[in-house]
Design brief:
Length: about 375
């Protein structure tokens, strides 16, 4: 269970006594049942066990829980391996164990610098229902300017009214407004009309930040909600500068909140160029009970089966391990073979038209393999990651 960046973990710690981790020795076949009917909800495979650390000591023993699962998938040969995740909650799965860059970070001043926990409300986020503009396609850096609304029934900090009184100061920057007194749409509309490039809404209560709703619109700027405590911290600082990161690319599979909450299997593939152990990371969220999570191998012939099912140990081409010897660091080299060039690498290959980035996962490239490139094509820069 993730302690998260928006509050203390409510999962009980008894399950995580091994260096703060729970080591699963069997298959991923978890359930968060309805407490009064625990035997009713068993998903597609029998023998479900409760998510580690749950039920928690919180009043809602299962709801609104984030879970991170990391593993090493071992394969014996270069091939394309197919999997399924059966779930009724949102999830994302990727190659590598390192979390992505925070969507919002504070660059200055130094005493408040660092990642800023923020919930996006944007149209291109696969794990949220958003109505405001998309995340930037490249990293953006700008000063944070508090809004001054003009509504007589709201505080200036709430950014309400038919315009912002400090529109000239806002233009080209990121706007900070407080939640309350008017709709989120009105706040973002005023900021966009003033020429802002994004909106940060500070919560007006100690609850977790939320996805901000609103009528469908074509506003071009993204909006984020942050915690009440972070909003106060930023307002008490001067010359605040933020960085907005582009959306992460390269997810193997996702399931979004727009999906109906019922169990369904999502298929994904990992193309492997070199045998070995591959780090994989799964993030999922239990919004409400009942909930279920099952990770399966989906062979090209025959029915799916649970990953690490003991009955398939002798024949399965892929196995999952909780730990592994330190994997070799990502590496890359470019070789000329006749008139052609070949990029050979260990890890996940990324490319960019500029040496300064942004780098994104190369969709044509398998994990740990090689990729032919056309030397007469446009200039590309390559790097490898786990």
């Amino acid at each position: 269970m993730l302690a998260g960046s928006v509050g203390r973990s409510s999962a009980h710690s008894l399950a995580f006594e091994q260096d703060g981790f729970f080591y699963e020795e069997a298959a991923i076949n978890y359930a968060a049942p309805i407490p009064v009917l625990p035997e009713v909800y068993q998903g597609e495979w029998p023998g479900d066990v409760t998510f580690p650390g749950l039920p928690s000591f919180a009043s809602s023993a299962y709801d609104n829980t984030a879970v991170e699962i990391t593993t090493f998938l071992e394969v014996d040969k270069a091939d394309t391996y197919r999997f399924q995740l059966s779930a009724d909650s949102i999830f994302k799965i990727e190659v590598g164990h390192q979390p992505p860059e925070a969507l919002v970070s504070v660059l200055a001043p130094a005493d408040v610098a660092g990642p800023l926990p923020a919930v996006p409300s944007v149209r291109d986020d696969p794990s949220a229902v958003g109505v405001f503009g998309p995340l930037p396609s490249v990293p953006l850096e700008a000063d944070l300017v508090p809004a001054l609304g003009t509504a007589t029934n709201a505080t200036p900090a709430q950014g309400c009214g038919d315009r912002l009184a400090n529109a000239e100061a806002v233009a080209g920057h990121i706007v900070l407004v407080d939640r309350g007194a008017c709709s989120f749409l009105e706040k973002v509309l005023n900021a966009a009309a003033a020429g802002a490039i994004a909106v940060v809404v500070a919560n007006d209560r100690p609850d977790h930040p939320i996805i901000m709703g609103g009528l469908p619109n074509e506003l071009p700027i993204p909006a984020f909600m942050i915690r009440q405590t972070d909003g106060k911290r930023l307002r008490s600082s001067s010359d605040v500068r933020l960085r907005l990161a582009p959306p992460q690319k390269g997810w193997l599979a996702t399931r979004s909140r727009t999906s109906t909450q019922e169990t369904s299997a999502t298929s994904f593939e990992i193309q492997v160029g070199t045998p070995g152990r591959i780090p994989v990371r799964l993030i999922t969220q239990i919004l409400s009970t009942p909930a279920n999570l099952e990770w399966m191998v989906a062979p090209s012939e025959g029915p799916p089966y649970l990953l690490n099912d003991p009955a398939m140990a002798a024949t399965s081409p892929v196995r999952a391990y909780a730990q592994s010897a330190d994997p070799p660091p990502p590496s890359i080299d470019i070789r000329r073979e006749g008139p052609a060039l070949t990029v050979r690498y260990l890890g996940v290959l990324q490319s960019s038209p500029s040496s300064d980035g942004p780098f994104t996962d190369e969709p044509r490239a398998p994990v740990s393999g090689f990729l032919p490139i056309d030397p007469s094509g446009p200039t590309r820069f390559f790097r490898a990651r786990w």
